Amino acid sequence: MKSKQSKMSRSVACAILGMAGLAMSGVASASGFALIEQNASGIGNAFAGGAAIADDASTVFFNPAGMTRLEGKQVVVAAHYIKPSMKFSGTGMNSNMGGDAGSPAIVPNAYFAMEMDSGMKFGLGLNAPFGLQTEYDAAWAGQHQAIKSKIETININPSIAYRMNDDLSVGAGIDYQRISGVLSNYGGAVLGTTTVKGDDTGWGYNFGLLYNINQNSRLGMSYRSAIMYTLSGTVETSLPFADGPASLDIELPDTLSMSMFHRLADNLDVMGDISYTGWSSFKQVKVLDASGTVISNTVENWKNTWRLSVGATLHYSEQWSSRIGVAYDQSPVTDEFRTARVPDSDRTWLALGGQYKMDAASAIDFGYAHLFVKNSTINSTSPAPALTGNYKSSVDILSVQYTHNM
Question: Is the pLDDT higher at 21 or at 295?
């Protein structure tokens, strides 16, 4: 039995290392270009109660204090297929509307949690908190403003947690994050397609609290800090002598979540969540050359946002559970400052999912969500010619997760 369990443990460890090596690119499914898909066990509830549920090791991301609810060692690996659709339509311009700018992606994440000799809990998360990819036809009507926009992040998040008493647990972690980006547009007949590439690394932190009101109810609070970057790279054009170094400053926002979990009956759980994201730090996309001269500058002026979600889980038996959830996700983008790179808008989530426990040590979680994205308008005048029209968008997400207790 021990030999079999050891082999299983090694297999799961190899799966984690393999997933860590994948390029964690993504497409924005939460507001802006945030990726809330950090497990598959939460998607069926539209991630309601994320900072309070703490049913598996993915709580490392949602609230590290939740690790105090876990026993022994646990590994979680998950993958999410995210398919956005972003279709532009306009009049009085090039008849090429760009096609569907939404690019599908597979976003993985993995987590590990264990108890230390001191009674503290240790956890490690590998995930992609932010990601974006939009790509239009090369000769579309808005080619001067955007062709390809891509942001990838990889986050390594070691964490610890400690139970202060029977009711209160605390947790904290450090985030080491790498970001890379690609921005391209048509620079005219002389420069042709202009592409800016860059990358950087940065440090952040996160912490959380988990409070048991009684045996059936608990509250969770979680905070993740902002992270500052200066992406360094190159600008490439059709004229080799015009190419050279480029840099871009960007700040990824902080987030604050408050969650509730309540066992309404022996077989029914309900949960809710309210989350804040500090997107107002994203003011502009200003690309500089080696001398500090502005190559391009796109004004963004994003606003801070709120996300509200509620969900329920029905436990049919020891093996089977089903989940449902809804959420409203506010966009940081206003009509005045909407751009072709991130034509974001408010969205409403409808999600469902479930869990099957194969045995005492293993479980499979799965879920699906459809995001109804509000139709939006764009009137972007820089760079010329102006891009005026409408966007019709939606997102579909399919997630699966394997959890193994050792």
Answer: 295
